[in-house]
Amino acid sequence: MFGIAFGVLAVQTGLAPWLAVVSSVVVVSGAAQFALVGLLVAGPGPVLVATTGLALRHLPMSAKLADLIGERSLRTRVSLAWVLTDETFGLTLRASQTGVPDLVAYKAAADVMLYSAWVTGTAVGAFVGRAIDPAALGIDVLFALLFLGLAAPLIRTRRDWLVVGLAVASAMLGTLVLPEAWQITGAATAAALIGTAIRE
Amino acid sequence: MNDLALIVLVAIVTFGSRVAFLARRRPVPEGLLGRFLEVFPLALFVALATSGLVAPEGSLAVTPALGGAAGGVVGAVATRRSLVGTILLGAAGYWLTRVLVG
Fold it and tell me: pTM of the predicted model, to two decimals?
């Protein structure tokens, strides 16, 4: 449904339907693609600045994933990076904590499911989805709840609770003082930096 | 710049950030960087959840999204941090608040 929402929005903002699908095929990032179509009229500069702000959060995610999967071939590691989204990263991290034996296979399966749903959803939204209103179904809230569910098992210490409080405060403050594209990255980085400075 | 070229540039920036640490073989970072990597996922997920559940309306008024957040927290506690429990009770909170306050 999130892919359908993107497809509908992309066409409504003037992107050709086939380009909406191409963007989902090659970018595979909901946040970056929504920023792309939202800033399309502003030109390439704002689009690339927003994309960079959103992409910065992938750096610690890729480092953590590299740590989780251990020694693997370059081909495997590069292919796992292709669909390194918030969702697949969160699910893989959770799988690592619940004892899933083959994290590479797990991540690859999650990637295939998310990628196929994302591209297919975009195509449906771009070509035939004008009659569908995903926001009315509360799809955006389901994604937020997914992240809440992924965060819950990671809270183990008093420092973790402090990081939670800081991330909530930073995210709310970020809506007031940061451009939209930098809010998530800025809030998460600020909270993590303070959490890093605090010893258990 | 045409739209296709811009899409390709966005794809390059996005994939570049994703592959940065995966493409090279390096030992697990230690020290401050290692601790940052331990803490960052939690901060990221909470920020993502907050932006979707609390921040979108820009206030703490009782909204369906805030009802979803409350339901999600209750679900996480009641089901011992089950992912499915969190989502189901969060969705229930969302729809209940939506019915009650619109």
Answer: 0.71
